[in-house]
Every structure is written in structure tokens, then in C-alpha cells.
Amino acid sequence: MGLHRALTMRRQGSSRRLVLVLEADSTLRKRAVDMLEQGGFEVLKAENAAATLFYLEARGDEVAAVFTELNLLSPVGESSLIQSIRQRWPHIRHFRRDVAPRDDAVMSEAGDG
């Protein structure tokens, strides 16, 4: 299921319209933010895990989803961050941008685990 469709479905049953974008690359972060804002979402921007947690501490109850770059963090770091988010804010969906060897971006909803 695509990010916009999943969030639109979530949005219909909830007042949450806020998405947090965690992306180290400023160009890719801007693209993700632009896409989400064009879809009618309010967006918070974070360039690292610390900023992500800062925003979630302040506005976690409002956030519908976190969008991350798959390789932004080490596998342990990403797993730990996402696990923390799921435990503290179970309503937040996680989407990640996977980068194939040819730099073709693929967006997917992250599964459990």
C-alpha cells in the first residue's frame, strides 16, 4: 500500500494529519516534504534520530506516521529507533524509503520486527 493511500485511509478515521520525515539528505528530505504537503499533510522534518525523538516527545500524539530512509541508520540503530517509536507511540505508522543499487527509490510500509 502506498504512503499517501495508507495515510489518507488513516486520516479518514483520525484527526492525525502530521507526518514526521526523518531523512539525512536535505534534497531527498525536501522532496518527501513537498510530496506530503501537496497531499494535504502537515510535515515535521528531522535529519537524525535525536531530532525525531525530540519532535515525538513534543507532538507524538499528533503524528500519524514516520517516514525514514532505510539506510539512514545502522540496522541496529534503525531497529532500536523504530522499536522505541512502536512501544511509546503504537498509533504511528512507519514508512521507509529503500534505495536499490541503481539509486531507484522504492517506498514501502515497514513491517513488524
CATH top level label: Alpha Beta
Structural class determined from secondary elements: alpha/beta
From the 3D coordinates, which CATH architecture would you assign? 3-Layer(aba) Sandwich
Low-confidence stretches: 101-106
How is the main sheet built?
A: 5 strands, mixed
Portion in strands: 25-35%
In the CATH scheme, what's the topology name? Rossmann fold
- What Rg is obtained from the alpha carbons, in whole angstroms? 13 Å
Distance between the termini: 18 Å
Q: Total helix count?
A: 4
Question: Any idea how many domains?
Answer: 1
- Biggest sheet, spatial arrangement of strands: 2-1-3-4-5
Summed over residues and divided by their number, the pLDDT gives a mean of 76
**What would you call the shape?**
globular
Describe the structure.
- The chain is an alpha/beta fold and 113 residues long.
- It has a single domain, classed as Rossmann fold (3-Layer(aba) Sandwich).
- The protein is 42% helix and 26% strand.
- It contains four helices and five strands; from the N terminus they run H-E-H-E-H-E-H-E-E.
- The chain has helices at 3-12, 26-38, 49-59, 75-88; strands at residues 18-22, 42-46, 63-69, 93-99, 105-109.
- A five-stranded mixed beta sheet has the order 2-1-3-4-5, sandwiched between helices.
- Strand 4 and strand 5 (105-109) form a beta hairpin.
- The longest helix is centred in the last third of the chain and has 14 residues, at 75-88.
- The radius of gyration is 13 Å and the shape is globular.
- Mean pLDDT is 76; it is low at 101-106.
